[in-house]
Amino acid sequence: MAEQIETGCCIAGGGPAGMMLGYLLARQGIDVTVLEKHDDFLRDFRGDTVHPSTMQVLHELGLLEAFLERPHERTEKVSLYLEGKPYKIVDFRYLPVEARYVAFMPQWEFLDFLADEARKLPNFRLMMSTGADELLVDEGRVCGVWATSGEMTYEIHAPLVVAADGRASTLREAAGLALEEKGAPIDVLWFRLPRQFEEGGNQSLGYARAGGFLVTINRGDYWQCALIIEKGCEAGMRAAGVEAFRSRVARIAPHLQGAVEAVTSLDEVKSLDVQVSRLNCWWREGFLAIGDAAHAMSPVGGVGINLALQDAVAAARILEADLKAGSVRHETLEAVQKRREWPARITQSAQIFAHERILTPALKANGMLKPPLFVKLLNAVPMLRRLPARAIGLGPRPEHWQGD
Question: Any idea what DSSP says for residue 221?
Fold first, then answer.
């Protein structure tokens, strides 16, 4: 027999969007239950970039100082090495926020931090190793979920169910919401390389040569690396073996030739199937999707985690009155989508532009790459680097927390 639970809001997914929304709702005095299907947050090669917009919200919540005590690395500027020549393209140091840099923090650290803060609140419940399997529906309105944890089954009733369970959302499909695929011509291979502190300084960098694009993210004693490849090419690369993989990386970034020898097997190289997709409608009666469940982002710009967190901030603010009243109107759910759909669409359009006009031409190129005009301008005029810093670091329509 299922154990019955009553809660003010049930959130499926303990990722950035789900944990932030759960914390904010509990902070507002709303009884909230977050379901996370894994028994911990320790998954590697997840979105680890915490942008200035997110840290500004943490500052407004009074959490930034404690957050920055967690292990992290900071990047104030971003450069691109194009055919071996450096071009300075982004400078975050002039943004009108408290933290003028990108913080690179393992996502499990960020999620542990949010969970620790949320557990201090008496009306917050986090159920680990618990997956939301099916929706409870009464006369067409979602009124809760069926969830399982090992051999335990839970019947959880709530005025609102929020799907924050990622791009492969189980509940989004169960709710019957139609997903629009925008397509992506690239995939990403993630791996680690040991970092020599005299190599590349402490800033995260991009490297581009004809036929290849590599991003290196400073992780202290190692680089987290992202090799961009054409979609559909992974099987061929793996079949070519680890020596060919190491040669490819060394050709794009020659100074990593020694470090890449640390990759002894392609089992150490993890793949990300890049998707760009979004829902046309994020909600139905009693149900709302946010974050990747509503709009899967490309890794371009590292903005996915921050869009998801911004969704959570806006949703917590907009939903507060209805959740406290115990019934969420469809107009309120529409308001959440209206607030956050435009930033998601704008960001995805910019990512698709980068796929089609920058990454794909570089991957298909035979001769030496030439720097686009905008790269030349950013490198030549320091003040112009503030524009991509604002676009990446703050994004369109950044959210703020104004009250408790």
Answer: S
Could you give the residue ranges of the DSSP H alpha helices within 101-167?
107-118
| Adjacent-strand bridge partners of 74 | 103
Query: Which domains can be identified in the chain, with CATH numbers?
Result: 3-47+107-181+276-360 (3.50.50.60), 71-104+186-230+232-273+365-395 (3.30.9.10)
Write out pLDDT tens, residues 273-282: 898 999 999 9
Is residue 282 exposed (0-12), middle (13-18) or buried (19+ Cβ within 10 Å)? buried
C-alpha dihedral, 109 to 114 to 118 to 119, nearest 10° = 0
Q: pLDDT per residue over 99-112, tens digit each?
A: 999 998 888 899 99
On whether the CB atoms of residues 146 and 136 are closer than 8 A, the answer is yes
Instruction: Give the residue among 318, 325, 324, 333 at the shortest CA–CA distance from 284.
Output: 333
Centre a 10 Å sphere on the Cβ of residue 116 and count the other Cβ atoms it contains. 12
Is 162:21 a contact under the CB 8 Å cutoff? yes
Contact between 285 and 140 (Cβ < 8 Å): yes
Contacts with 338 (C-beta within 8 Å, 6 or more apart), sequence order: none
Segment holding 283, helix H or strand E: strand 283-284
* The model's pTM: 0.93
Q: For residue 111, how many other CB atoms are within 10 A of its CB?
A: 22
Give dist(CA 224, CA 222) in Å, integer.
7
Give the H/E segment covering residue 307. Answer: helix 304-325
Distant-in-sequence, close-in-space partners of 381: CB < 8 Å, separation ≥ 6 = none
**What is the structure's pLDDT at 72?**
92
Describe the crossing of helices 304-325 and 330-354 by its angle, rounded to 10 degrees. Answer: 180
